[in-house]
Every structure is written in structure tokens, then in C-alpha cells.
Task: structure prediction
Amino acid sequence: MNRPFLLFIAVFIVMALSNAIVPVLPLLSDDLSFQTLIFSAYFFGAMVSTLPAGIASDHYGQPVLIRVSMGLTLLTGILIVTLTDPVDLLVWRFIEGVAAGIFVSSALSWIGYQEDTLKNTGFFMASLNFGLLSGLIGSGWLTQISGEILLGAFVCTLITGIVFLFILVHKIPRLGSKERISARLLAGETVSQIIRQYPVWLSVIILLGSTGYVQAVLPELSGYPVQKVSIVLAMMNFATIIASLVTPYLKADPILLIRISALVIAPSLFTFLITPVVSLAIGTVAGFIMVSQIGYLASAEMRQGIAMGLYSTCNYAGMAIIPAIGGKIISISSFFTASAVIALGALATAIIIGRCSCKGFIGNEKAA
Result:
């Protein structure tokens, strides 16, 4: 299979379901702080599951993890639309995040062994972001026209069930080593990759976390009405989708592309409140960054389960940590100070990313 279309569809619906509850959180809980907890529980669940899932993909094979994660996603969707007490939703969101983390790591591991990894990665990340965008907009629209708060989540759960059935009956071959790898060897390789590729891991945390910072503070600090905020964030996401699809065709050195993107992000952190165009630029470079990082790892590392597990963990960690740091600095100092601190991190990334020994987009490709 040259194009894992089933995985593209699956990641689309997994992400759509994850965002389907976001527009209606104020209708599910009166407490703003608890709304935030329900929202964040998903990312925490994903963060703690991605690395173990990546390691398990190398040990047990990707198909097992993909099927388990889709089944768990379907279960949490059913629980979300049937048991809606805020405390229950907190638990379901955490489990949903665990399932998403397992799916993303195992699916990216499978894609990493494909011959045309970069194109598949571009399609995968575009599908992921399009799912997030569709869940956010679609759920709000369905609630508005029907008056049913969880209609969007119900529709996404229904589609998840259909996709899960296809994944159960469709043969997904295990890629990579077919032999069981010892836990000791996997642990050693995990530590080695952390040390060997530390510039990449830092770039994932800081650069992708910077885009999360923009999304987190834009609604409050921009002064835009709610409708305009939604449009800007949606267009930012759409720019990421387009960039994800375009990146493989640039045939550029991935490390150089990451460095250039870091240099674009640094000044943009000071100016994105001035004009929405800057937010679109940040969304665009986010697409370049994600595909370049995954493309580099697919070329540089043999154990794709571990590599993609570490990548996904750093991705979710950045989205959780960098916005929190920025928000805290703003509360005790100023927007300028917060942006300066994060921009310094982006500039540092541009410097240290060159310490990676990049093998480029072409060559060293894995056979399907």
C-alpha cells in the first residue's frame, strides 16, 4: 500500500472527535477552571501514552496498537455522549487522549517504514489538522442548527465505529522487524535516541509549543470578537494543512527547513496580535516544521516506533508546557516578556538543530 488512506481517514476522525466537545464545554460545565481541566486532560493522556505506544509498536507490531487505539477511541466516544457529568467527562477525555497517543505513535511508526515517507507524512499531518478543524467547526455548527449539545460528538463517534470496523477487517501488514525485541534492547535504544537526537526533540517542544502559545493567547489579547477569533484560528490551521501537503515537494534539507522556520517564528511571536496575516505565517511554518521533523527521523532512525513515540511525546509536551509558561509570564510581567522568552528558545533551536546529522529527504528510504 503506497498510500495508507485508511490511516489518513482514521486520524481525521480521531482528531475530529477530540475537538467535537471543545465548542460546547461551557454548556457542559459552569466552572471555567473545570472546563480547562476537561480540555487539558486529553493532552495529558496523549502525552503519557505516546512513548510507551511507540516502544510497543516495535515490540508487538503497529497493527495491534492501531486496532486497540481505535477501539478505545470508539469506547470513549460512546461514554462522552452518554455519561456527561463534568467529573466523568474529565476521565473520558483523559482516556480519549491515551487512545489518540497510541494511535498517532503506532500510525506514524507504520508510515515511517514506507518508501515515500515524506508524502505519506504530509498527507497524515494534513488529515490530522483537517480533523481538528472539522471537529471544531462541525460540532459548533451542528449544535447551533439542532440545539443538541453533543450531536457533533455523536456523529464523530458513529463514524469512528465505521472506521474501526474497516480497520478490523482490513489487513494492515506489520512493518519493520518481525521479531520480538527485548525490553532491555528497546529501553537502551530509547535512551540512545533521546541523546542522539536531542536537538530535534527540543525543536519539537519549543517550535510546536510556540504555535500553541499563539493559539492560547490570541483570543484574550487580540481584542477580536469571538467570530473573528474562530476564523483566524481556523485559517491558521488551514495554512498548516496546506504546508503539510507542500513540504514533501520542496525537496529541501529538513534541518535547513526547520532552522528557517525557527527564524520566522521568533519575530512573529511579537507581531501576531497586530495582523492575522502573521498568524497564518505561523500556521504555515508549523506545517513545514512537523513534516520536516518526521521526515528527518524517518531517514535517520531505524526504530520508527521509538522515534515516533518520542516525537509525539515532545509534541504534546510542547503544546502543554510552552503556552502555560507564556501565560504565566504574561500574568506576572507582560506579553512582550513572554514572547521574548519563547522567541529566545526558538532562536536557540535554530542554532542547535545543526548538530543533527541529517540524511535528507531522498535516499535511505524504507521499503514498504
